[in-house]
Amino acid sequence: MTESYSGNLYIVAAPSGGGKTSLVRHLVTTLDDIEISISHTTRKMRPGETDGIDYFFVDESKFISMINDSSFVEHARVFNNLYGTSSAQITERLKQGIDIVLDIDWQGAEQIRRIFPSAVSIFIVPPSLEELKIRLKNRRQDNNEVIRDRMIKAQDELSHYSEFDYLIVNDNFEHAAVELRAIVITNRLQIEKQVKKQAKLLSFLMSSQ
Asked: Is 111 a member of any domain?
């Protein structure tokens, strides 16, 4: 399906606390023509978040209505909250030649790959479960019971790493950020993409005497 688009689609997944959101935000600030797809969610807005920037915050009835209208290319219930990616968030910007990054979980990634088989998928893992637990506690967003549930879920999520194209260990943020950026740049330079993007230049070079 993505063959008709000029933009590239990237899927970035990780267990909660794995650091994917920070890495993705850093990525789009250091490269041109790449944006984050904004998901819809029914969860409550956290301190520092902004509607329409971090997520589109909606109630469950609105979310269910969007499901019934086939507005989502993927959706899932995570920790009793619904998350979904709208079709419009992806297709319109891909057509404009903009690369899109999806910050989603492995379930969403599975759904996206079925619809966009050319999507590049990247899985981010913590250096250890102990470090993951520390990061979840340092966020000060969840109580101990929620953190315990997230740790249990994390081990299940980590078992899906082999379903992805790339694996990044987020031990050092700067190092992980460079690796994520390198994946995007490498993908942009693939010959089939460059032939389309640089068609005029290549035609000129081949015809020059």
From this structure: yes
How many domains does one find in the chain?
Answer: 1
Kindly write down the DSSP assignment for every residue of 62-91, as one continuous string: HHHHHHHTT-EEEEEEETTEEEEEEHHHHH
Q: What is the pLDDT of residues 50-83, one digit of tens each?
A: 999 889 999 999 999 999 999 998 898 888 999 9
The CATH number that applies at residue 102 is 3.40.50.300
State how far Cα 35 lies from the chain centre.
10
| Residue-number span of the structural domain to which 158 is assigned | 2-38+98-207
pTM above 0.85, yes or no: no
Q: Could you tell me how many residues make up the chain?
A: 209
